[in-house]
Specification:
216 residues, Endonuclease Iii, domain 2, 54% helix
């Protein structure tokens, strides 16, 4: 079996998903930050259903910082963990106003100091909003990295991020994030992946777990 390089993986994914992009709807860096916080443990599609009303009423950090908690809860109540997320996004908005004049900072340390913001969220904002090379490891990126042998099954999310940064060309980090997500979301899904059509099947560590993996 020929070992496939990370560049070859990305080249193939570019062919499969040339339109890969951030699917969270937003019109500003602040709105992207809030949308990513809301997307934890839920789908981008679910977030996109609640953010239009949220951002219409609270388009900037200044407005959201003054928001009524119950009102925000009511607006986002259809997504998972909405009560905790409502508290976090209001607190985050207050911190932005108090510490950053309402603007979203662009570095990891400052971003992760904000309520509700972890490494994944910070990496998404750095990558999408500021075009700073970063790799955000969500469930899709983690699954694809492990299936294709770019990380080990027992690796933590942070270990996956470190390995991807080492193995992928830095200039391709931002695109890799979107390509892996699209591949994981629409092709190499957690359940019923399209193994019979997969160009990477011979390199997949889970190919023998799926009886329908062989190409016809």
């Amino acid at each position: 079996m020929k070992k496939i390089s990370s560049d070859e993986i990305l080249d193939q994914l570019e062919i499969m998903f040339p339109e890969a992009h951030c699917e969270l709807i937003h019109e500003s860096t602040f709105q992207l930050l809030i949308a990513v916080i809301l997307s934890a443990q839920t789908t981008d599609a679910s977030v996109n259903k609640v953010t239009p009303a949220l951002f219409e009423k609270y388009p900037t950090a200044n407005e959201l910082a003054r928001a009524d908690l119950k009102d925000v809860e009511n607006i986002i109540r259809n997504i998972g963990l909405y009560r905790n997320k409502a508290k976090n996004i209001i607190a985050c908005a207050k911190e932005l106003v108090e510490n950053y004049d309402g603007e979203v900072p662009s570095n990891m340390k400052q971003l992760t100091s904000l309520s509700g913001v972890g490494r994944k969220t910070a990496n998404v904002v750095m990558s999408v909003a500021f075009d700073i090379p970063a790799i955000a490891v969500d469930t899709h990126v983690e699954r694809i990295s492990k299936r294709l042998g770019l990380a080990k099954q027992q690796d933590s999310v942070l270990q996956v991020e470190v390995k991807l940064k080492r193995k992928l060309n830095r200039q391709r980090w931002n695109r890799a994030h979107h390509l892996f997500i699209f591949f994981g979301r629409y092709f190499c899904t957690a359940k019923n992946p399209k193994c019979s059509e997969c160009p990477f099947i011979e390199n997949c560590r889970e190919k023998n777990k799926n009886p329908g993996h062989r190409k016809s």
